[in-house]
Amino acid sequence: MRMLVLGAGLQGTACAFDLLNNPAVERVVLADVKVGPLPAFLAPFAGDRLVQKALDVRDAAAVREAFTLGDAVMSAIPYYFNYPLAGLAVEAGVHFADLGGNTEIVRQQQTLDAEAKAKGVSVVPDTGLAPGMVNVIAQHGIEQFETVERVQLFVGGLPQVPEPPLGYQIAYSIEGMVDYYTTPSLVVRNGAPTEVTALSELETVPFAAPLGELEAFHTAGGLSTMVYRYAGKIPSMEYKTLRYPGHARIMESIRGLGLLDTTAVEVKGQQVVPRDVFVRVAGDKLRKGKPDLVALRVVVTGTSNGVRSTRAWEVVDYYDAARGITAMMRTTGYTLSITGQLQAMKAIAPGVHTPDECVPATRYFAMLAERGVEVREV
């Protein structure tokens, strides 16, 4: 297998590392707009099997040329490039997977389905952690029941040791966190897609020691297209973010004070956007870079053989200190790599599919377990 990874940031380098640990992968091309030093965990692979390439994904001709270098393309760059890149991948006849995160762009990618099938390639958006891994687990849970009445998804990326005032550190970007906390969340209520306010409907989710109790609240995006797929079929489906207790109320107060607003206000004769100030000031304080963890739980309630029951699956993963790879990189970058490998091995049918529609759960869980990421029923 020859693989092309777009983006040499945290997730792209983790994806490349995972690919290179499979002897069946002959070569990985790691492309980004600028070629920089490799992280320590990738440095031993530099040479014939790992090649860096300068690539501006806004240059369609350069992208077409780059797409000839791989059997599958894995995109770890910002979501707004995913639709045009998916189109170019289908045109070139190569598989394409991305980290997604924007449901409307995923729906645009779905319009490429017929063309992808005709070319015999697959496009799999939303292949990160959430959306991504959590949706595959949710689909697996749904399939254990004859009828389903409720599906709950909980995911959080957290520091192993919480520090005040928020008990949080930035896993991706402070801008992304603010977006999640200010954008309405789309859930399924009474069988219909329904908007609920971000940070609302706080509840406690207990995990085994040493993690203990976490709080959960609504944020956008985690369900992705499952909202539309299961509308009218499952009465209740929702996604919530996990944080250490107290986080949501502080962020709700910050939002209530207008500090996350996007409308400029005058301050000492200057026009200032409150959100920009919060992002600049809080962002620096929340980039702690300390050992992290990822906590995930999926809870499904339904009926089989006339018996109603509730079943749950969870993942708790930790920072890899030996390699300097975060839990978020392991659960996101490795997941992107696994999806790309499944595509290249033709384990995913041609067409455009979200992970919950196409990823073979048993095989996927086994591949995660090989990497020390355990999906277990609790």
Secondary-structure content class: alpha/beta
End-to-end distance = 36 Å
In helices, the fraction of residues equals 25-40%
Mean model confidence by pLDDT: 95
| Gross geometry | globular
Strand element count: 18
CATH T-level topology of the largest domain: Dihydrodipicolinate Reductase, domain 2
Write down the domain tally.
Answer: 2
Second-tier CATH architecture of the largest domain: 2-Layer Sandwich
Poorly predicted ranges: none
The name of the CATH superfamily of the largest domain reads Dihydrodipicolinate Reductase, domain 2
The largest beta-sheet arranges its strands as: 3-2-1-4-5-6-17
Under CATH at level 1, the class of the largest domain stands as Alpha Beta
Q: What's the number of helices?
A: 13
SS strand fraction: 25-35%
